Amino acid sequence: MSLRTGVPVAAVALAAVLLTTGTWHFASPSGFESIVPRFLGSRAFWVRASGVLELGCAVGLLIPRTRRMAGWAAAALFVVVFPANIDMAVQAWQGHGSKVIAFGRLPLQIPLVIWALYIARGNWAGVRTLWPRRAVREI
């Protein structure tokens, strides 16, 4: 797959993921509300807001003119919602909810951020600069 077709295909695939999860925020909000950290206040508000943001990113990814900006926005969104995933893992550790799902979600954020950055940058070279070769060799 060439770069010319790779980014649009990646964008459509990520848009499908975001359309699905964004829709779930409205169709079944209780599961999402339970992982919103308490200190944020109204859980229903944050679930709806993140659902709207996911749907907005999805639409942006489908429009070539807004694709790069939507890629950056999706990457930022994946980073910003990470505390909810941590809260979910803490709750599961304490016996509330599935540990498999909770701990499975934590590392999932990394490929999602990379996926969005690939779309935003338009190539893998820009994403690879996040991990300098020297640092990788030292590990």
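Next protein, fold it too.
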Amino acid sequence: MNPTMDGEAPMTFEGRTLSPQKEMVRKFYKDMWDHADVSLIPEIFHADFTFRGSLGPVLVGHSQFADYVRWVTGCLENYTSDIFVMMEEGAQVSAKLRFHGIHRQPMFGLAPSGRHVWWNGAPIFTFEGGLVRDLWVLGDVYGLINRIEDNMLAAPEFRTVA
């Protein structure tokens, strides 16, 4: 499956000038997550920042978050974040993303499937003094689990009456 969202292409950043906050979000996804480079965490986050991730955990601080990054990128080979759009309002940046990789380690109690799996996410970054103070991410975990289980052909419970 092509990792684009409904034919939507991810943003490209070459030749694009971003605000400092949007650049920090780009760095977070494209430099830190896509390369599992946890050494960048102190450059992005306050030491006691809070994180509520799309896959469930609520974490505080660099160490807990680094463990989470290592877990996700260990479970999903070639983990990649596709940024589709970023919006900025004051001290906050939100975005529309797709996260994906090859399922190589157990996740949610499910054995490695070897499938290319993905989920969509919508983060809200709150900045203070140039660093992220809080990150809240809503993600389509149900879609990810269905892709791991190869259950995407199941009929949806909701149907329109047309």
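About the second fold: Helices lie at 20-33, 41-44, 62-75, 141-148.
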